[in-house]
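Please, structure for the following, as C-alpha coordinates.
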Amino acid sequence: MKTFITSTLLLLTLLSCGTKQTQETQQNTDNMPYTAEGKTARVYTTAMGTDLRLTLTGEYRFKPGKQAKETEKSVFVNPHKSFQTFLGIGGAITDASAEVFAQLPENKQQELLNAYYTPGGIGYSLLRVSIHSADFGSGSFTYVSDKDPDLPTFSIDHDRQFRLPMVHRAIETAGGKLTTYASPWSPPAFMKSNNSMLKGGHLLPQFYQPWANYYVRFIEAYEKEGIPIWGITIQNEPMAVQRWESCIYTAEQERDFLKNYLGPTLRDAGMGDKKIIVWDHNRDLIFDRANVILNDPEAAQYVWGIGFHWYENWSGGAPKYENLQKVQEAFPSQNLLFTEGCNEAFDAEKYQHWPNAERYGESMINDFNRGTVGWTDWNILLDQNGGPNHVGNYCFAPIHADTRTGELIYTPAYYYIGHFSKFVHPGAKRISTAPSISFLQSTTFQNPNGEMVTVVMNDTDQALDYALYVNLQVIHLSIPARAMQTLRY
Protein backbone atom coordinates (compact mmCIF):
# COMPACT_ATOMS: atom_id res chain seq x y z
CA MET A 1 0.00 0.00 0.00
CA LYS A 2 1.46 3.37 -0.98
CA THR A 3 2.27 5.80 1.81
CA PHE A 4 1.56 9.46 1.23
CA ILE A 5 2.82 12.37 3.35
CA THR A 6 0.11 14.99 3.35
CA SER A 7 0.97 18.38 1.92
CA THR A 8 -0.23 20.18 5.04
CA LEU A 9 1.94 18.16 7.43
CA LEU A 10 4.95 18.54 5.14
CA LEU A 11 4.66 22.30 4.87
CA LEU A 12 4.06 22.83 8.59
CA THR A 13 7.07 20.70 9.49
CA LEU A 14 9.43 22.33 7.02
CA LEU A 15 8.26 25.88 7.62
CA SER A 16 8.66 25.51 11.39
CA CYS A 17 12.38 24.76 11.13
CA GLY A 18 12.83 26.98 8.06
CA THR A 19 11.75 30.07 10.02
CA LYS A 20 14.40 29.51 12.67
CA GLN A 21 16.98 28.87 9.98
CA THR A 22 16.23 32.17 8.24
CA GLN A 23 16.42 34.14 11.48
CA GLU A 24 19.67 32.57 12.57
CA THR A 25 21.45 32.71 9.23
CA GLN A 26 20.92 36.46 9.07
CA GLN A 27 23.24 36.90 12.05
CA ASN A 28 26.87 37.73 11.39
CA THR A 29 29.77 36.40 13.41
CA ASP A 30 33.34 37.53 13.75
CA ASN A 31 36.15 35.37 12.41
CA MET A 32 37.01 34.11 15.87
CA PRO A 33 38.04 30.51 16.65
CA TYR A 34 34.89 28.48 17.11
CA THR A 35 33.90 27.23 20.55
CA ALA A 36 30.81 25.21 21.44
CA GLU A 37 30.97 26.34 25.07
CA GLY A 38 27.53 27.45 26.24
CA LYS A 39 25.95 26.82 22.84
CA THR A 40 22.76 24.86 22.22
CA ALA A 41 22.44 22.25 19.50
CA ARG A 42 19.08 21.91 17.77
CA VAL A 43 18.52 18.39 16.45
CA TYR A 44 16.38 17.57 13.41
CA THR A 45 15.50 13.93 12.72
CA THR A 46 14.09 11.76 9.96
CA ALA A 47 13.51 8.11 10.88
CA MET A 48 12.00 5.01 9.31
CA GLY A 49 8.76 3.75 10.85
CA THR A 50 7.97 7.11 12.43
CA ASP A 51 6.37 10.43 11.48
CA LEU A 52 9.70 12.21 11.93
CA ARG A 53 10.58 14.07 8.74
CA LEU A 54 13.18 16.81 9.22
CA THR A 55 11.46 17.28 12.57
CA LEU A 56 12.96 19.28 15.45
CA THR A 57 13.35 16.57 18.09
CA GLY A 58 15.42 18.22 20.79
CA GLU A 59 17.73 20.96 22.01
CA TYR A 60 20.91 20.15 23.94
CA ARG A 61 23.33 22.51 25.67
CA PHE A 62 27.03 21.72 25.41
CA LYS A 63 28.85 21.07 28.68
CA PRO A 64 32.54 20.55 29.50
CA GLY A 65 33.50 16.97 28.74
CA LYS A 66 36.25 14.53 29.57
CA GLN A 67 38.22 12.06 27.51
CA ALA A 68 35.74 9.82 25.67
CA LYS A 69 35.48 6.29 26.97
CA GLU A 70 36.59 3.44 24.73
CA THR A 71 33.11 1.91 24.92
CA GLU A 72 31.32 5.18 24.15
CA LYS A 73 29.82 5.78 20.73
CA SER A 74 31.03 9.21 19.72
CA VAL A 75 31.34 11.74 16.91
CA PHE A 76 34.33 14.08 17.17
CA VAL A 77 34.43 17.51 15.54
CA ASN A 78 37.61 19.58 15.29
CA PRO A 79 36.51 23.13 14.38
CA HIS A 80 40.14 24.24 13.90
CA LYS A 81 40.57 22.13 10.75
CA SER A 82 38.59 23.12 7.68
CA PHE A 83 38.61 21.90 4.09
CA GLN A 84 36.72 22.59 0.84
CA THR A 85 34.25 25.42 0.34
CA PHE A 86 30.68 24.26 -0.21
CA LEU A 87 29.09 25.19 -3.57
CA GLY A 88 25.57 23.89 -3.03
CA ILE A 89 23.09 21.05 -3.47
CA GLY A 90 20.37 20.72 -6.06
CA GLY A 91 18.82 18.62 -8.79
CA ALA A 92 18.12 18.54 -12.51
CA ILE A 93 15.12 20.09 -14.19
CA THR A 94 14.87 17.63 -17.05
CA ASP A 95 12.33 17.71 -19.84
CA ALA A 96 10.58 14.90 -17.96
CA SER A 97 10.37 17.00 -14.79
CA ALA A 98 9.06 19.98 -16.73
CA GLU A 99 6.47 17.92 -18.64
CA VAL A 100 5.11 16.44 -15.41
CA PHE A 101 5.18 19.84 -13.70
CA ALA A 102 3.04 21.33 -16.47
CA GLN A 103 0.32 18.74 -15.77
CA LEU A 104 -0.06 19.73 -12.11
CA PRO A 105 -2.61 22.23 -10.83
CA GLU A 106 -1.15 25.63 -9.95
CA ASN A 107 -1.23 25.06 -6.19
CA LYS A 108 0.71 21.80 -6.53
CA GLN A 109 3.23 23.43 -8.86
CA GLN A 110 3.91 26.08 -6.23
CA GLU A 111 4.05 23.48 -3.48
CA LEU A 112 6.73 21.59 -5.40
CA LEU A 113 8.78 24.74 -6.03
CA ASN A 114 8.51 25.77 -2.38
CA ALA A 115 9.48 22.27 -1.26
CA TYR A 116 12.74 22.43 -3.21
CA TYR A 117 13.75 26.07 -3.46
CA THR A 118 12.77 27.94 -0.31
CA PRO A 119 14.27 27.99 3.22
CA GLY A 120 10.97 26.52 4.41
CA GLY A 121 11.58 23.62 2.02
CA ILE A 122 15.02 22.11 1.56
CA GLY A 123 16.76 25.11 0.02
CA TYR A 124 18.23 23.84 -3.26
CA SER A 125 20.90 26.13 -4.71
CA LEU A 126 22.22 24.11 -7.70
CA LEU A 127 20.47 23.37 -10.98
CA ARG A 128 21.48 21.07 -13.84
CA VAL A 129 19.88 21.12 -17.29
CA SER A 130 20.61 19.18 -20.45
CA ILE A 131 21.85 20.66 -23.72
CA HIS A 132 18.95 19.52 -25.93
CA SER A 133 17.55 16.06 -25.09
CA ALA A 134 18.46 13.32 -22.64
CA ASP A 135 16.54 10.11 -22.07
CA PHE A 136 14.19 11.71 -19.53
CA GLY A 137 11.59 13.36 -21.72
CA SER A 138 9.00 12.43 -24.31
CA GLY A 139 11.38 12.39 -27.25
CA SER A 140 14.83 12.96 -28.70
CA PHE A 141 15.60 16.37 -30.22
CA THR A 142 18.35 18.90 -30.97
CA TYR A 143 18.46 22.67 -31.39
CA VAL A 144 19.23 22.50 -35.13
CA SER A 145 16.96 21.40 -37.98
CA ASP A 146 19.56 20.82 -40.68
CA LYS A 147 23.05 19.39 -41.07
CA ASP A 148 24.83 22.68 -41.68
CA PRO A 149 27.98 22.87 -39.48
CA ASP A 150 27.56 26.65 -39.29
CA LEU A 151 24.38 26.04 -37.22
CA PRO A 152 22.18 28.60 -39.00
CA THR A 153 18.97 27.01 -37.66
CA PHE A 154 20.06 26.89 -34.02
CA SER A 155 17.07 27.61 -31.76
CA ILE A 156 15.99 26.67 -28.22
CA ASP A 157 12.29 27.05 -29.12
CA HIS A 158 11.69 23.41 -28.12
CA ASP A 159 12.49 24.33 -24.50
CA ARG A 160 9.94 27.14 -24.38
CA GLN A 161 6.94 24.86 -23.95
CA PHE A 162 7.91 23.13 -20.71
CA ARG A 163 11.51 23.47 -19.58
CA LEU A 164 12.14 27.22 -19.67
CA PRO A 165 8.93 28.14 -17.80
CA MET A 166 9.78 25.73 -14.99
CA VAL A 167 13.40 26.89 -14.78
CA HIS A 168 12.27 30.52 -14.60
CA ARG A 169 9.85 29.73 -11.79
CA ALA A 170 12.48 27.72 -9.90
CA ILE A 171 14.95 30.61 -10.05
CA GLU A 172 12.26 33.06 -8.95
CA THR A 173 11.25 30.82 -6.04
CA ALA A 174 14.90 30.46 -5.01
CA GLY A 175 15.15 34.24 -4.63
CA GLY A 176 16.46 35.05 -8.09
CA LYS A 177 19.55 32.85 -8.25
CA LEU A 178 20.40 29.22 -8.87
CA THR A 179 23.90 28.11 -9.82
CA THR A 180 23.04 26.54 -13.18
CA TYR A 181 25.16 24.25 -15.29
CA ALA A 182 24.43 22.30 -18.46
CA SER A 183 25.41 18.90 -19.85
CA PRO A 184 25.05 17.35 -23.32
CA TRP A 185 24.08 13.70 -23.69
CA SER A 186 24.99 13.58 -27.39
CA PRO A 187 25.90 15.86 -30.29
CA PRO A 188 23.40 15.93 -33.18
CA ALA A 189 23.33 12.71 -35.17
CA PHE A 190 25.03 14.17 -38.24
CA MET A 191 28.11 15.01 -36.17
CA LYS A 192 28.62 11.40 -35.02
CA SER A 193 30.23 8.25 -36.31
CA ASN A 194 27.03 6.19 -35.94
CA ASN A 195 24.76 8.90 -37.39
CA SER A 196 22.51 8.58 -34.33
CA MET A 197 22.12 10.43 -31.06
CA LEU A 198 21.51 7.08 -29.38
CA LYS A 199 23.73 4.09 -28.63
CA GLY A 200 27.12 5.71 -28.28
CA GLY A 201 29.17 6.58 -31.33
CA HIS A 202 31.97 9.17 -31.45
CA LEU A 203 32.08 12.85 -32.35
CA LEU A 204 33.61 13.02 -35.83
CA PRO A 205 36.83 15.09 -36.00
CA GLN A 206 35.45 17.43 -38.68
CA PHE A 207 32.70 18.47 -36.28
CA TYR A 208 34.89 19.28 -33.25
CA GLN A 209 34.69 23.01 -33.96
CA PRO A 210 30.98 23.12 -34.85
CA TRP A 211 30.19 21.17 -31.69
CA ALA A 212 32.28 23.59 -29.61
CA ASN A 213 30.33 26.44 -31.22
CA TYR A 214 27.11 24.67 -30.20
CA TYR A 215 27.95 25.15 -26.50
CA VAL A 216 28.47 28.85 -27.11
CA ARG A 217 25.16 29.16 -28.93
CA PHE A 218 23.40 27.32 -26.08
CA ILE A 219 24.90 29.59 -23.41
CA GLU A 220 24.05 32.71 -25.41
CA ALA A 221 20.48 31.53 -25.95
CA TYR A 222 19.83 30.66 -22.31
CA GLU A 223 21.41 33.84 -21.01
CA LYS A 224 19.28 35.86 -23.43
CA GLU A 225 16.33 34.22 -21.66
CA GLY A 226 17.63 35.49 -18.31
CA ILE A 227 19.14 32.18 -17.19
CA PRO A 228 22.84 32.65 -16.37
CA ILE A 229 24.92 29.56 -17.12
CA TRP A 230 27.59 29.07 -14.47
CA GLY A 231 29.28 26.15 -16.19
CA ILE A 232 29.12 23.11 -18.44
CA THR A 233 30.21 19.51 -18.41
CA ILE A 234 31.80 18.28 -21.62
CA GLN A 235 29.82 15.06 -21.98
CA ASN A 236 27.44 13.10 -19.80
CA GLU A 237 28.84 9.61 -19.15
CA PRO A 238 31.51 9.59 -21.90
CA MET A 239 32.31 5.88 -21.46
CA ALA A 240 28.75 4.50 -21.59
CA VAL A 241 27.10 3.18 -24.76
CA GLN A 242 23.45 3.64 -23.78
CA ARG A 243 20.27 2.89 -25.68
CA TRP A 244 19.44 6.56 -25.15
CA GLU A 245 21.43 9.69 -26.08
CA SER A 246 25.10 8.97 -25.53
CA CYS A 247 28.52 9.65 -27.03
CA ILE A 248 31.89 8.06 -26.32
CA TYR A 249 35.07 10.01 -25.63
CA THR A 250 38.29 8.32 -24.64
CA ALA A 251 40.30 10.27 -22.10
CA GLU A 252 42.59 11.47 -24.87
CA GLN A 253 39.66 12.53 -27.06
CA GLU A 254 38.06 14.51 -24.25
CA ARG A 255 41.41 16.12 -23.43
CA ASP A 256 42.07 17.13 -27.04
CA PHE A 257 38.55 18.40 -27.67
CA LEU A 258 38.84 20.54 -24.55
CA LYS A 259 42.28 22.03 -25.14
CA ASN A 260 42.06 22.50 -28.91
CA TYR A 261 38.41 23.42 -29.39
CA LEU A 262 36.03 23.88 -26.46
CA GLY A 263 38.33 25.78 -24.11
CA PRO A 264 39.64 28.24 -26.72
CA THR A 265 36.17 28.67 -28.25
CA LEU A 266 34.59 29.65 -24.94
CA ARG A 267 37.53 31.94 -24.18
CA ASP A 268 37.36 33.66 -27.56
CA ALA A 269 33.59 34.11 -27.18
CA GLY A 270 34.15 36.02 -23.94
CA MET A 271 33.04 33.05 -21.87
CA GLY A 272 36.31 32.24 -20.18
CA ASP A 273 34.59 32.59 -16.81
CA LYS A 274 32.31 29.60 -17.47
CA LYS A 275 33.32 26.60 -15.41
CA ILE A 276 34.27 23.52 -17.42
CA ILE A 277 33.77 20.14 -15.75
CA VAL A 278 35.37 17.01 -17.19
CA TRP A 279 34.47 13.32 -16.89
CA ASP A 280 30.85 13.56 -15.59
CA HIS A 281 30.73 9.79 -15.12
CA ASN A 282 31.25 7.22 -12.34
CA ARG A 283 33.82 7.08 -9.57
CA ASP A 284 35.42 3.88 -10.87
CA LEU A 285 37.46 5.43 -13.72
CA ILE A 286 37.64 8.99 -12.41
CA PHE A 287 41.32 8.78 -11.40
CA ASP A 288 42.46 7.66 -14.85
CA ARG A 289 40.42 10.38 -16.58
CA ALA A 290 41.76 13.03 -14.23
CA ASN A 291 45.35 11.91 -14.80
CA VAL A 292 45.09 12.07 -18.60
CA ILE A 293 43.42 15.49 -18.74
CA LEU A 294 44.96 17.29 -15.78
CA ASN A 295 48.54 16.19 -16.42
CA ASP A 296 48.32 18.13 -19.68
CA PRO A 297 48.83 21.83 -18.78
CA GLU A 298 47.20 23.04 -21.99
CA ALA A 299 44.02 21.15 -21.17
CA ALA A 300 44.15 21.65 -17.40
CA GLN A 301 44.11 25.45 -17.72
CA TYR A 302 40.46 25.25 -18.78
CA VAL A 303 39.27 22.80 -16.11
CA TRP A 304 37.37 23.94 -13.02
CA GLY A 305 36.75 20.44 -11.75
CA ILE A 306 35.81 16.80 -12.22
CA GLY A 307 32.19 15.65 -12.20
CA PHE A 308 31.05 12.18 -11.15
CA HIS A 309 28.02 9.90 -10.75
CA TRP A 310 27.33 6.98 -8.40
CA TYR A 311 26.33 4.22 -10.81
CA GLU A 312 29.57 2.24 -10.55
CA ASN A 313 27.86 0.16 -7.87
CA TRP A 314 24.78 -0.62 -9.96
CA SER A 315 25.73 -4.33 -10.00
CA GLY A 316 26.18 -4.51 -6.23
CA GLY A 317 29.83 -3.54 -5.87
CA ALA A 318 30.96 -1.10 -3.19
CA PRO A 319 31.03 2.61 -4.10
CA LYS A 320 34.57 3.75 -4.94
CA TYR A 321 34.73 6.70 -2.55
CA GLU A 322 38.48 6.25 -2.15
CA ASN A 323 38.98 7.20 -5.81
CA LEU A 324 37.71 10.69 -5.01
CA GLN A 325 40.34 11.00 -2.35
CA LYS A 326 43.03 9.88 -4.78
CA VAL A 327 41.98 12.61 -7.22
CA GLN A 328 42.06 15.18 -4.41
CA GLU A 329 45.54 14.09 -3.36
CA ALA A 330 46.87 14.24 -6.92
CA PHE A 331 45.12 17.47 -7.97
CA PRO A 332 44.26 19.46 -4.82
CA SER A 333 43.44 22.64 -6.75
CA GLN A 334 40.65 20.92 -8.70
CA ASN A 335 37.04 20.71 -7.54
CA LEU A 336 34.93 17.57 -7.23
CA LEU A 337 31.25 17.86 -8.12
CA PHE A 338 28.63 15.13 -7.87
CA THR A 339 26.64 15.71 -11.05
CA GLU A 340 24.06 12.90 -11.06
CA GLY A 341 22.55 10.07 -9.07
CA CYS A 342 19.16 8.42 -8.75
CA ASN A 343 17.64 5.12 -7.67
CA GLU A 344 17.02 2.96 -10.72
CA ALA A 345 14.40 0.26 -11.49
CA PHE A 346 11.28 2.24 -10.62
CA ASP A 347 8.54 0.40 -8.73
CA ALA A 348 5.55 2.37 -7.44
CA GLU A 349 5.26 -0.02 -4.50
CA LYS A 350 8.66 1.23 -3.30
CA TYR A 351 8.03 4.96 -2.96
CA GLN A 352 8.83 4.66 0.76
CA HIS A 353 11.65 2.10 0.36
CA TRP A 354 14.06 3.30 3.04
CA PRO A 355 17.32 1.96 1.53
CA ASN A 356 16.77 4.35 -1.38
CA ALA A 357 17.13 7.25 1.06
CA GLU A 358 20.08 5.66 2.84
CA ARG A 359 21.90 5.42 -0.48
CA TYR A 360 21.68 9.21 -0.66
CA GLY A 361 22.80 9.69 2.92
CA GLU A 362 25.81 7.40 2.61
CA SER A 363 26.88 8.89 -0.69
CA MET A 364 26.57 12.50 0.42
CA ILE A 365 28.48 11.97 3.67
CA ASN A 366 31.27 10.03 1.99
CA ASP A 367 31.49 12.29 -1.05
CA PHE A 368 31.71 15.43 1.06
CA ASN A 369 34.25 13.86 3.40
CA ARG A 370 36.48 13.24 0.37
CA GLY A 371 36.46 16.79 -0.89
CA THR A 372 33.28 17.13 -2.96
CA VAL A 373 32.10 20.75 -3.13
CA GLY A 374 28.57 20.26 -4.47
CA TRP A 375 25.99 17.53 -5.00
CA THR A 376 23.36 17.36 -7.75
CA ASP A 377 20.51 14.87 -7.77
CA TRP A 378 18.96 13.76 -11.06
CA ASN A 379 15.27 14.49 -11.91
CA ILE A 380 13.59 16.66 -9.29
CA LEU A 381 10.17 15.37 -10.36
CA LEU A 382 8.85 12.30 -12.20
CA ASP A 383 5.36 10.88 -12.71
CA GLN A 384 3.66 7.79 -11.25
CA ASN A 385 5.47 5.63 -13.82
CA GLY A 386 8.97 6.95 -13.08
CA GLY A 387 9.03 8.94 -16.31
CA PRO A 388 8.37 10.11 -18.94
CA ASN A 389 11.41 8.49 -20.51
CA HIS A 390 11.47 7.97 -24.26
CA VAL A 391 13.40 4.68 -24.02
CA GLY A 392 11.66 3.25 -20.95
CA ASN A 393 14.53 3.90 -18.49
CA TYR A 394 12.18 4.57 -15.57
CA CYS A 395 13.69 5.68 -12.24
CA PHE A 396 12.88 7.24 -8.88
CA ALA A 397 12.93 10.92 -7.99
CA PRO A 398 12.77 12.46 -4.49
CA ILE A 399 9.25 13.66 -5.34
CA HIS A 400 6.80 11.99 -7.71
CA ALA A 401 3.51 13.33 -9.02
CA ASP A 402 0.50 11.20 -9.75
CA THR A 403 -0.72 13.09 -12.79
CA ARG A 404 -4.09 11.33 -12.56
CA THR A 405 -4.87 12.93 -9.20
CA GLY A 406 -2.41 15.82 -8.92
CA GLU A 407 -1.01 14.33 -5.70
CA LEU A 408 2.65 14.89 -4.82
CA ILE A 409 4.41 11.90 -3.27
CA TYR A 410 7.41 12.69 -1.08
CA THR A 411 9.88 9.83 -0.81
CA PRO A 412 12.32 9.41 2.11
CA ALA A 413 15.17 10.45 -0.20
CA TYR A 414 13.74 13.98 -0.28
CA TYR A 415 14.17 14.31 3.47
CA TYR A 416 17.62 12.72 3.55
CA ILE A 417 18.85 15.21 0.94
CA GLY A 418 17.22 17.95 2.99
CA HIS A 419 19.31 17.08 6.03
CA PHE A 420 22.17 18.64 4.06
CA SER A 421 20.66 21.13 1.63
CA LYS A 422 18.33 22.79 4.13
CA PHE A 423 21.02 23.55 6.68
CA VAL A 424 24.39 23.80 4.88
CA HIS A 425 24.67 27.01 2.88
CA PRO A 426 26.84 27.97 -0.10
CA GLY A 427 30.18 29.27 1.11
CA ALA A 428 30.29 26.91 4.10
CA LYS A 429 33.54 25.12 4.95
CA ARG A 430 33.71 21.41 5.66
CA ILE A 431 35.05 20.76 9.16
CA SER A 432 37.15 17.81 10.33
CA THR A 433 34.83 15.13 11.75
CA ALA A 434 35.24 11.47 12.68
CA PRO A 435 32.94 8.94 14.40
CA SER A 436 34.36 6.36 16.80
CA ILE A 437 32.34 3.49 15.35
CA SER A 438 31.33 2.36 11.87
CA PHE A 439 27.64 2.28 12.87
CA LEU A 440 27.56 6.06 12.66
CA GLN A 441 28.49 8.08 9.57
CA SER A 442 28.99 11.82 9.88
CA THR A 443 30.19 15.05 8.31
CA THR A 444 30.27 18.68 9.47
CA PHE A 445 30.18 22.10 7.81
CA GLN A 446 30.54 25.60 9.20
CA ASN A 447 28.22 28.08 7.53
CA PRO A 448 29.38 31.58 6.59
CA ASN A 449 27.59 32.97 9.67
CA GLY A 450 29.72 30.75 11.94
CA GLU A 451 27.03 28.17 12.71
CA MET A 452 28.13 24.52 12.77
CA VAL A 453 26.06 21.82 11.07
CA THR A 454 26.81 18.16 11.81
CA VAL A 455 24.94 15.41 9.96
CA VAL A 456 24.81 11.93 11.52
CA MET A 457 23.37 8.79 9.95
CA ASN A 458 22.45 5.49 11.59
CA ASP A 459 21.66 2.73 9.10
CA THR A 460 21.36 -0.02 11.70
CA ASP A 461 18.12 -1.53 13.01
CA GLN A 462 18.77 -0.29 16.56
CA ALA A 463 18.57 3.13 18.17
CA LEU A 464 22.00 4.31 19.27
CA ASP A 465 23.07 6.58 22.11
CA TYR A 466 26.08 8.69 21.20
CA ALA A 467 28.06 11.73 22.26
CA LEU A 468 29.05 14.68 20.09
CA TYR A 469 32.39 16.16 21.09
CA VAL A 470 33.43 19.58 19.82
CA ASN A 471 36.91 19.92 21.27
CA LEU A 472 36.25 19.39 24.98
CA GLN A 473 32.57 20.36 24.89
CA VAL A 474 30.06 17.52 24.69
CA ILE A 475 26.37 16.71 24.36
CA HIS A 476 24.76 13.28 24.73
CA LEU A 477 22.07 12.25 22.25
CA SER A 478 20.17 9.30 20.82
CA ILE A 479 19.47 8.58 17.17
CA PRO A 480 16.63 6.23 16.20
CA ALA A 481 17.11 3.13 14.10
CA ARG A 482 17.43 3.78 10.34
CA ALA A 483 17.61 7.52 10.84
CA MET A 484 19.34 10.73 9.82
CA GLN A 485 19.96 13.66 12.14
CA THR A 486 21.19 17.20 11.56
CA LEU A 487 22.63 19.10 14.52
CA ARG A 488 22.86 22.91 14.31
CA TYR A 489 24.91 24.72 16.93
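The chain has two domains: 7-85+430-488, 88-423. The two ends are 39 Å apart (CA to CA).
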